[in-house]
């Protein structure tokens, strides 16, 4: 069985990378100053953001090419396992990494809202690709954090470091919004596949077999992380993926209600509801009348 390295503290990760620990809860490392290495997998107990300084070439999104080859950001939340694949060859990593312990942000504004940065649970292939201008902004943010780490720790250190990390993440949020826009064509293709999967779901026996459709189910079918899929649907439609699914359920329900040979309970089970009363309640919230009232009105 493959050994998985475990980094529960900033000091452990610094030691692995031959880097001095200037602050016990946060660090900015330059990979070019670390030792060469081979393939490894690691379990992170800290927030880790990799800036990969590698040339990606022209990335093709839909029918267009976009030249975002100035760097790529990959986000890892505590508890995630990642690995580097390089066919067993020794390589010298390039780029920088920001790593911080959850204790650093505990009780702060960032700590209360860290889950809003949903890109921490994106898959590696959903990484953020930077333009030249964006790359400079990211380097500037990292340099500010690094500068603060090189100063003696005082009562202002934590506040300033956390504020700069929050600024860094807010810029990443903006840049991801830009990336969703540049991927508009391919996103529309994913939305069409999502719509097709939704339609096929209710034409199959899946509602009776596995219940109501979930965001996680469709994300898996589309080979996307649930958060990336949800964020993409929200950006493209203005509705959350859950709202989109709910609207589809109600549309299918309205069609089924016209079939007077079926009771409301039978329709509820066909749609994947465990309990008919849950279906009736959801239908009334969405339509404004109960299923039976809707049937009589139409």
From TrEMBL:
Q: Which UniProt keywords apply?
A: DNA-binding, Transcription, Transcription regulation
Q: Which InterPro entries match?
A: Homeodomain-like_sf (IPR009057), HTH_AraC (IPR018060), Tscrpt_reg_AraC-type_HTH (IPR020449)
Domain (HTH araC/xylS-type): residue spans on this chain: 196-297
Family annotation (SUPFAM superfamilies): Homeodomain-like (SSF46689)
Q: Which stretches are transmembrane? A: none
Q: What Pfam families has UniProt attached to this entry?
A: HTH_18 (PF12833)
An example Gene Ontology molecular-function term: DNA-binding transcription factor activity
Q: What is this protein called?
A: AraC family transcriptional regulator
The source organism is Rufibacter hautae
């Amino acid at each position: 069985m493959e050994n998985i390295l475990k980094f529960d503290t900033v000091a452990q990760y610094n030691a692995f990378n031959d880097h001095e620990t200037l602050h016990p809860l946060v660090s900015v490392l330059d990979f070019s100053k670390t030792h060469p290495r081979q393939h490894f997998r690691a379990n992170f107990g800290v927030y880790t953001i990799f800036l990969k300084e590698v040339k990606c070439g022209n990335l093709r999104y839909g029918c267009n090419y976009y030249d975002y080859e100035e760097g790529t950001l990959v986000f890892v939340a505590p508890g995630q396992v990642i690995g580097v694949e390089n066919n067993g060859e020794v390589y010298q990593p390039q780029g920088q990494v920001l790593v911080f312990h959850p204790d650093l942000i505990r009780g702060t504004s960032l700590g209360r809202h860290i889950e809003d940065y949903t890109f921490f649970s994106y898959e590696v292939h959903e990484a953020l690709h930077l333009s030249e201008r964006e790359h400079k902004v990211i380097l500037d943010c990292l340099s500010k954090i690094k500068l603060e780490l090189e100063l003696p720790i005082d009562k202002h250190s934590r506040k300033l470091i956390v504020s700069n990390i929050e600024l860094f993440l807010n810029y990443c949020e903006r840049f991801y919004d830009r990336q969703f826009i540049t991927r508009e064509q391919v996103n529309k293709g994913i939305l069409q596949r999502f719509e097709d999967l939704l339609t096929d779901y209710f034409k199959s026996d899946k509602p009776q077999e596995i219940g109501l459709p979930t965001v996680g189910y469709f994300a898996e079918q589309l080979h996307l992380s649930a958060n990336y899929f949800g964020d993409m649907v929200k950006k493209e439609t203005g509705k959350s993926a859950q709202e989109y699914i709910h609207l589809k359920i109600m549309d299918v329900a309205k069609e089924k209600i016209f079939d007077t040979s079926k009771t409301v309970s039978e329709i509820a089970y066909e749609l994947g509801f465990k309990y008919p009363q849950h279906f009736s309640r959801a239908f009334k919230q969405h339509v404004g009348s109960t299923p039976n009232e809707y049937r009589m009105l139409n």
